[in-house]
Amino acid sequence: MPPTGSDPARMNRKKGDKGFESPRPKSVVVSIFSGFVELTIFPTVANLNRIKLNSKQCRIYRVRINDLEAAFIYNDPTLEVCHSESKQRNLNYFSNAYAAAVSAVDPDAGNGELCIKVPSELWKHVDELKVLKIHINFSLDQPKGGLHFVVPSVEGSMAERGAHVFSCGYQNSTRFWFPCVDSYSELCTWKLEFTVDAAMVAVSNGDLVETVYTHDMRKKTFHYMLTIPTSASNISLAIGPFEILVDPYMHEVTHFCLPQLLPLLKHTTSYLHEVFEFYEEILTCRYPYSCFKTVFIDEAYVEVAAYASMSIFSTNLLHSAMIIDETPLTRRCLAQSLAQQFFGCFISRMSWSDEWVLKGISGYIYGLWMKKTFGVNEYRHWIKEELDKIVAYELKTGGVLLHPIFGGGKEKDNPASHLHFSIKHPHTLSWEYYTMFQCKAHLVMRLIENRISMEFMLQVFNKLLSLASTASSQKFQSHMWSQMLVSTSGFLKSISNVSGKDIQPLIKQWVDQSGVVKFYGSFAFNRKRNVLELEIKQDYTSPGTQKYVGPLKVTVQELDGSFNHTLQIEENSLKHDIPCHSKSRRNKKKKIPLMNGEEVDMDLSAMDADSPLLWIRIDPDMAVLRRADSEQADFMWQYQLRYERDVVAQQEAIAALERFPTPASRLALTDVLEQEQCFYRVRMAACFCLAKIANSMVSTWTGPPAMKSLFTRMFCCKTCPNIVKTNNFMSFQSYFLQKTMPVAMALLRDVHNLCPKEVLTFILDLIKYNDNRKNKFSDNYYRAEMIDALANSVTPAVSVNNEVRTLDNLNPDVRLILEEITRFLNMEKLLPSYRHTITVSCLRAIRVLQKNGHVPSDPSLFRSYAEYGHFVDIRIAALEAVVDYTKVDRSYEELQWLLNMIQNDPVPYVRHKILNMLTKNPPFTKSMESPLCNEALVDQLWKLMNSGTSHDWRLRCGAVDLYFTLFGLSRPSCLPLPELGLVLNLKEKKAVLNPTIIPEAIAGNQEAAVNPSSHAQLAGFQNPFSSSQEEEEIDMDTVHDSQAFISHHLNMLERPSTPGLSKYRPANSRSALTPQHSAGCDGTPTTKPQWNMELPRKGTGKEQPPLEMSVHPAAAAPLSVFGKEPASSRHGEHHHHHHREHKKRKKKHKHKHRHKHKRDGRERGRAPLAFPSPAGGRSARSPPLSD
Fold first, then answer.
1. Neighbour tally for 858: CB within 10 Å
2. Where is 811: in which H helix or E strand?
3. pLDDT value of position 414
């Protein structure tokens, strides 16, 4: 936003109106955002004396409750997951600590980073359940996440430069920019006010009530009201010098874009009203908000982000009427964001485990929109694509669980023990897992629709929406508003009420457990009995699979027509006999009826004389999440490709024909390419299949290269067949084919495995004679594909006597390719294409030339294109080349350059993509030796995921994925073994195994890492001030068995304390952890604590003596006692004998509890502050807070 003085932003909230005052940055570079929040809280229980809110990176200046100053503590354990002194480097350990840190501030569990103490004067007020108003002043200084500032480095004022800021983040990330209850299940109404520079526009949720200028007219305040109860996580903000367009078809819809993009905005959004009409019609329900705003911004976090009554899009989705390829993609983005307005923003979720319902419904109705807009073929192709993606992912990783239910938190109850991250919280999930999770959710909704019918399905959605809209108009009554939250059980209940069908088995199969089904079908025809003997095997032992029992549809196309059979897949039955309807007949010429009622003539000479079967399909409707491989003869696949009218069947046939390189397959594929009525994506796939078949048949292939004569006939001049006609892309079908064919042809190879000379000449001619002057559409994607074709034609260089490649001794063909690429790159600098598609293709082609040894391998060109300032697609393409170079050339320097970019690049999306690319194409993996794998790299990545990415959940999870790919779950093999085995901490009288030496075998079971002496630890965790014998011999039963107490201590070890701890810690922080002074509190400065905060146990009322909790920032630091840190060995030698005596004394208590504590999970509820700090002078008997 514009740099100006930082005046407060104001926000009032009614009932939990999370009111919020808005921000402003200062000076050119410094972004400061200051404001205040006012929450109105209705206590629902008496004795509410602490209030926990979420807040990250905000500086809190003061907190007042009903105008009384309130004490508060701020502690964010996710800033540094494991303490930096820890020498632990195994990922299992990190994932457990990270899940614990996220739980400790999880608003759904009533936790938060900011803990506010209700002043004692108000306790009586609270007991009468009267309203509390909390007023918090805060500022954000140079925020690293949550708000993204885009300030182009050009001349002019902020508005002239197009500087803007917008909120972004993954899942509930609103806490990054103002204190709130950052949970999807806490609804409230909102008043939002933003004071910004006069040249700027602030766009936020709800209706713009008024805009007020300040006296000097240099600033203005935007007042927004959102009367529909909404969670803080669905609140967003965008501020910039936006151009504003009111939708001509629907005046309540407003579009915003950056300066000078208005014409593109008009074209891009001209279609949106049709999407509104479609959703309102199928849901028989009005759009729930009074307005809708779309904002297109630069450097977007994701392409589409939906918030209550507004969506934030990437500005790269804007396009003009000349662009073909981007149009369907952008329309899909708009439709997706609108589906999420209904399910996701208006209807929110009860808890994280209900997320699948919202993602499933919004994805499902988006699919219905797609079916209506792009047709059934496109829809079925999309379903097949999504199904293939989820099947491949689950088989690779071991499964995606839609509805995780967490038991006691013992290791065996962990529903996703096959993963390297916890699935308890959205913030610990790998981004790829979350993408697949959304994909699976909408496929499962489609399975439910198959079971109960679409009509009932839409009735269920309508019921959810109408209940929610009735609830939303009520004045605050929390029990009413809960109708606006959807839960798995509530959703299933309305399905059974509306449809009367029991879908429990389906839910159990696909929602409550992970895994997909793997079918393998083969058949024989029994002529005597005229039956088809079908054998269907399942593989349910490999990871990511499950056993399927239930109905399975099989479609058999016979000579007399197409017949559906429903088989019952039982526990053990494999063979199924299916009666055939037609006798085999050779001679009678008769038309053959197809599935869709069409009758066609077929040439039956290829088929088996005895059998009437033409082809067989298993589960044609994709009614099971499965991979189905079936064995058929090549002629059956050819018939299926030619005559089956379902695009999914055609694509399966094309994939199968790659295994049958025969003239008949060649003919079938060529026929499909020539068929105008055939779906364009099937024809595109046929091009690539034909190229593969031609390469397998290279010695017997006759005639011109595959597809060349076809292309010439379709797209070239009749008189001069090597000159292409002037472009006319009016027919999109033929446009896509014209674009794809040359790319596939370039994959052809001759007997010497080189690209045939005539193919290369042909592609160069296409480029040379390309003429777009009379075309109303842009040809930038077409030209980019021609460069891809040139790249595909490159084959590895044959080096003679190791001569060095120079431009003089280049292979003549390669020289022609290189000249074209250079010419294109230079042209792009003068006349850039839309989204720089041509530069992107050129960069990829140069990398192909490098990899094949034609030009010297050198990353410097790519590094210059990857710098900040280039268009994002160019940067990603260049970075992909650098990642590949790092892998092929094992370059440590490039790897460091990439890691540096991950930490410092200004664009969050680019940082995320680099991690993603490194994970997909890693420089080395855990199973191989590599010179790149060394201790410095381990430390660097550990630091990145441990504390370097706390401002962006997605980035942190990406770093975890990369660490897993490179080093696996256990301690990286390149690390030296730690020196010291047993750590004695004398002052606390404990011995702890140095957890870094845990053998790999146990690494999976984290308890073992922290528990070797947990019985001793707990007994020894006692008040340093008391030395009486009885205190020392604590009976373990007085240490409450509360999970919280134990797991808390196990998890707190690695929890960072308040920001700003560093100033208390001496430079040699190691010695600070084994304090030098004896009687004082462990490592806490002996000065008086700044605040004492009383934290009575919940539910017991204030009468109980409160537990004093000193919240000196360093209080949480010193627990070296739990042995994450080898204490200095000198200490150890000195007092060894004391220690032994002490141990004898304790022996009695050891055996009693050993087993109990071993099993105690770390996963159960955890009290974030349940930590009797020794400074408070309490013994281990203090009741744990979460009891």
1. 12
2. none
3. 64
Which letter does DSSP use for residue 604 in this model? G
* Cβ burial 623-658 (10 Å sphere, 16+ → b, else e): ebbbbbebebebbbbbbbbbbbbbbbbbbbbbebbe
- Beta-bridge partners for 411: none
Token pair 């981004």 in the structure block, residue:
431
DSSP E strands, 631-783: none
Residues 673 and 682 sit within 8 Å (Cβ to Cβ): no
Mean pLDDT, the chain, rounded, equals: 83
Q: Of the ranges 18-32, 340-354, 605-619, 1147-1161, which is most confident?
A: 340-354
- Strand 990-993 versus strand 292-297 pairing type: unpaired
Residues 6+ apart with CB under 8 A from 199: 2, 157, 158, 159, 241
Cβ atoms 205, 190 nearer than 8 A: yes
The rounded distance, in Å, linking the Cα atoms of 821 and 809 is: 18
Q: Domains of the chain: which residue ranges? A: 143-346, 354-501, 702-856
**Overall CATH class of domain 354-501:** mainly alpha
Q: What is the pLDDT of residue 752?
A: 94
Closest CA to 654 of 627, 607, 692, 623: 692
Residue type, 754: L
Question: Cα(348)–Cα(182) distance, rounded to whole angstroms?
Answer: 13
Tally of CA atoms within 13 A in the half-sphere of 385 that contains its CB = 10
Q: Quickly tell me which residue has 């009749």 as its tokens.
A: 718
Instruction: Give the Cα separation of 773 and 776 in Å (integer).
Output: 8
Closest CA to 1110 of 1148, 1161, 1058: 1058
Residue type, 958: G
Count other C-beta atoms under 10 Å from residue 998's C-beta. Answer: 22
Q: Is 923 helix (H, G, I), strand (E, B) or coil?
A: coil
Residue 612: which residues within 8 A CB-CB, separation 6 or more? 558, 559, 560, 580, 581, 582, 583, 584, 585
620: left (phi over 0), alpha (psi -120 to 50) or beta: alpha
Distance separating alpha carbons of residues 528 and 195, to the nearest angstrom: 86
Alpha-carbon span 851 to 922, nearest angstrom: 16
Q: Which of 144, 192, 142, 137 is CA-nearest to residue 169?
A: 144
Count of CA atoms in the C-beta half-sphere (13 A) of 910: 26
CA dist 65 and 134 (Å) reads 4
Range of lowest pLDDT (139-153, 463-477, 586-600, 921-935): 586-600
Mutual angle of helices 355-374 and 488-499, in 10-degree steps: 50
Q: Do residues 312 and 299 make contact, with C-beta atoms less than 8 angstroms apart?
A: no
Torsion angles phi and psi, residue 204, rounded to 5 = -145, -170
* Predicted TM-score of the model (pTM): 0.82
> In angstroms, rounded to a whole number, what is the distance separating the alpha carbons of residues 154 and 982?
60
Give me the architecture of the 143-346 domain, per CATH.
2-Layer Sandwich (3.30)
In tens, the pLDDT along 600-646 reads 998 888 888 888 999 999 999 999 999 999 999 999 999 999 999 99
Q: Which of 1037 and 195 is assigned the larger pLDDT?
A: 195
Q: Report in angstroms the alpha-carbon separations of 530 from 565, 580, 803.
A: 16, 6, 69
108-130, pLDDT tens digit by residue?
Answer: 999 999 999 999 999 999 999 89
